[in-house]
Write a structure and sequence with these properties.
483 residues, Glutamyl-tRNA Synthetase, domain 2, binds glutamic acid, single chain, two-stranded parallel ribbon, three-stranded antiparallel beta sheet, binds zinc ion, Helicase, Ruva Protein, domain 3
Length: 483
């Protein structure tokens, strides 16, 4: 069997973690089996559609760096891959079901339908939804009403009795009573637009989709889809419903829990490799005792059997940890390239690549997010804003002593060889002893003067990067600031 899977987003919002997880699992499955991964845009809900969301979809996957083999932008043998370009096909097939006695025209107007809904709500009726009023209309009567210009939708005949069974490769056999399936759902609206159910089934069939892998929230739609496949006389694809992604509190992952759109993660300075690796692990395992994988490795290791049935919990801290790990794996040059857009965003207009490259070893260990880089590195490019005086004063010492220490350091620094960090540090230790203070107490005001903060990347390396002249100037400036 040819393996063909699809990611079928509705462009009604920005790409979020859940969607990307679905896409990624489909992609990995296709790659692990030598199959084809398809992108299909399900843009039948025109009220919530926006071209912005389509743009966001492409940008997101460009950034993540994995791609489909067939899709709207690249075409393919089963196109078009945008549902709004396939309306004729849906109408034809809805009408085919009517001709086969599996669907029927319904002429009920909105007024009648809302009256039914209101009555059901009032009685607390167990019967919910459409009352199948038009199911018994003689085809010849329906045809006459259509011919006279009356508006109608096409509804699917859900069997009145019995059950619908299907197999989910992950969850096992699932059985629904037909009476629990939505009574006769609309397939084609009166304006000729298909509903999700019709378009989804027709497309999965004609695009020769072998496996439908989608989130578990779609399980309630599956019986209806199975009934439709049977009505058409088509073989349904295999179904694999993926575990849900929840927040720490056990509810469906949403904005309340933190960033959910991939855009936000990107802006916050996550690396695509880290995000991909973390998302792949939501409800799926790859190899025991190992955390870090490249996309290529995930492709080789993916197995449906390694998917979990239970929901996955999105752990922002774990992802942060992953991000730090991936940052550390980058070369200095790669990091410079990654960090530059964030520096530009923060207003660093001209930054010297050589300085950036030399600065990377100083910050990489402390960098959890690319977006932290500008703040962390600012002092290497601009004079730091000096904090309040107290920040300069070591414990048990006073401002006068801090001023003396800064003056001493400024006088002493030019005699140090900053090209040799170890030697410079040894020299400063000796200087501290001569001054009768602890080494740490000498370095504290120096650190604040040079970097603007008590916590900073390695100090001697920073002074080496700035050079003696600029370092001394900062020490002098801090001294004046305290005086
Ligand atoms: N358009 C649906 C969605 O937005 C597709 C669901 C499916 O994969 O069948 O997720
Ligand atoms: Zn009706």
């Amino acid at each position: 069997m040819d393996i063909r899977v699809r990611y079928a987003p509705s462009p009604t919002g920005n790409q979020h973690i859940g969607g990307v997880r679905t896409a990624l699992i489909n992609y990995l499955f296709a790659r692990s089996k030598g199959g084809v991964f398809i992108l299909r845009l399900e843009d039948t809900d025109q009220t919530r559609y926006s071209g912005e969301y389509v743009k966001n979809l492409y940008e997101t996957f460009d950034w993540l760096g994995f791609r489909w083999d067939e899709g709207p932008d690249i075409g393919g043998p089963a196109g078009p891959y945008v549902q709004s370009e396939r309306f004729a096909l849906y109408r034809e097939h809805a009408e085919k079901l009517v001709a086969m006695g599996q669907a029927y025209y319904c002429f009920c107007d909105e007024e009648r339908l809302s009256t039914i809904r209101a009555a059901q709500a009032k009685d607390d009726s167990s019967e919910m939804g459409y009352d199948r009023h038009c199911r018994g209309l003689e085809p010849i009567v329906a045809a006459a009403r259509l011919a006279s210009g009356e508006k109608a939708v096409i509804r699917l005949k859900i069997p009145l009795e019995g059950t619908t069974k299907f197999h989910d490769a992950l969850l096992g056999d699932i059985e629904w009573k037909n009476e629990d399936v939505s009574p006769d759902p609309v397939l084609l609206k009166s304006d000729g637009f298909p509903t999700y159910h019709l378009a989804n089934v027709v497309d999965d069939h004609f695009m020769r989709i072998s496996h439908v892998m989608r989130a578990q929230e779609w399980i309630p739609s599956a019986p209806m889809h199975m009934i439709m496949y049977k009505a058409f006389g088509w073989t349904p694809p295999e179904l694999i419903h993926l575990p849900m992604v929840l927040g720490q509190d056990g509810s469906k992952l949403s904005k309340r829990h933190g960033a959910t759109s991939v855009n936000e993660f990107r802006k916050n300075g996550y690396l695509p490799d880290a995000l991909i690796n973390y998302i792949a692990h939501l409800g799926c395992s790859f190899e025991e005792g190992r955390d870090i994988f490249t996309l290529g490795e995930l492709e080789g290791l993916f197995k449906v059997e390694k998917l979990n049935k239970a929901p996955a919990v999105f752990d922002y801290q774990k992802l942060e940890w992953y991000n730090g790990q991936y940052i550390r794996m980058k070369s200095d040059a790669e990091l410079v390239a990654l960090v530059k857009p964030f520096l530009a965003e923060a207003g660093f207009v001209s930054t010297n690549d050589a300085v950036l490259l030399a600065a990377m070893p100083l910050v990489r260990e402390r960098l959890h997010f690319l977006k932290d880089a500008p703040d962390m590195m600012r002092y290497l490019f601009k004079e730091p804003t000096l904090p309040a005086k107290e920040e300069f004063i070591p414990k048990k010492l006073d401002v006068g002593r801090a001023i003396e220490l800064l003056a001493a350091a400024a006088a002493f620094l030019p005699s140090c060889d900053l090209a040799n960090i170890e030697a410079a540090e040894t020299a400063f230790r000796a200087e501290a002893e001569r001054l009768g203070v602890k080494f740490g107490d000498l370095m504290m005001p120096v650190r604040v003067a040079i970097t603007g903060s008590r916590v900073s990347p390695p100090l001697f390396e920073s002074m080496a990067l700035l050079g003696v002249e600029r370092s001394v100037a900062r020490l002098e400036k801090a001294r004046a600031h305290l005086s």
